[in-house]
Design brief:
- The relative contact order is 0.16.
- By secondary structure, the protein is of the alpha/beta class.
Length: about 250
């Protein structure tokens, strides 16, 4: 019996990884320059290569992802296509213009997904270049099984809920996790969540929060603290150290 269950499990994962059309949406439409350098952070160089290219290479190495949709600022589409042409990125299927908010940006990427063939959609920040292909595949696998899954790490600091300058409460740290990306969902579930969000003007910074509002269950896959989101100037310095460490 155990052997039969193992065989069925392996067959399911082969079906999920190699037969179903799992698609990644890379959200890289931010206009912010908080990381410094005078340009959008996703196009800043890290070790001589743009951050967005580092990120896309991780998805090229993923076993579970078959296509990638990249969402960039409208004015950067032509430049990005030229940039991508200089690298071997075989999985890029479409490049689309982002919106004013993250929700609008991801929705535009979702509209570019081929509904007839899509199974799992993985949403990832374009400025998280240190995610591993194994982490991507594990999160896709969890979404194949449960419908929705996110990469996250346990909180190590005590978190305070603050209103104004006053602490309202201190949640139990053991129950708190820092959400990362990718966040992976069955296509129809994600589509339904975003349609509801747009109809009711929900605006969140986390895709899984939309699924939670629908009452959907979200599985957590433990990630790694090195999967940082490059946002501030000091993050560039940290990223350079992580890149050198990875090459050693």
């Amino acid at each position: 019996m155990r052997g039969e269950r193992f065989s069925l499990g392996v067959s399911f994962l082969i079906f999920c990884f190699f037969i179903l059309m799992n698609v990644a949406i890379i959200a890289a439409a931010g206009q912010g320059t908080r990381a410094g350098g005078g340009q959008a952070k996703q196009f800043r160089e890290l070790g001589g290569t743009p951050i967005i290219i580092h990120t896309l290479r991780r998805f090229e190495q993923s076993t579970s992802i078959r296509e990638v949709i990249v969402v960039v600022p409208e004015g950067d589409i032509a430049g990005f296509l030229q940039l991508a042409g200089r690298y071997t990125l075989a999985k890029i299927a479409r490049v689309v213009a982002g919106g004013r908010t993250r929700t609008e940006t991801v929705w535009r990427g979702l509209q570019a997904v081929r509904a007839a063939t899509a199974e799992i959609v993985a949403v990832h920040d374009g400025v998280r270049p240190f995610v591993t292909s194994e982490q991507i595949d594990l999160t896709v696998e969890a979404a194949c099984i449960g419908g929705a899954a996110i990469l996250a790490v346990p909180a190590t600091d005590t978190i305070k809920e603050v209103r104004g300058a006053r602490v309202m409460r201190t949640p139990e740290r053991a129950t708190l996790w820092h959400a990362q990306t990718p966040q992976c969902f069955r296509y129809e579930l994600m589509r339904r969540a975003y349609e509801r969000a747009l109809a009711e003007n929900w605006e969140v910074t986390d895709d899984s929060a939309l699924v939670e509002r629908l009452g959907g269950a979200v599985t957590v896959v433990e990630g790694d603290t090195r999967n940082i989101k490059i946002t501030r100037p000091e993050d560039i310095a940290i990223a350079e150290l992580l890149l050198r460490e990875a090459k050693e």
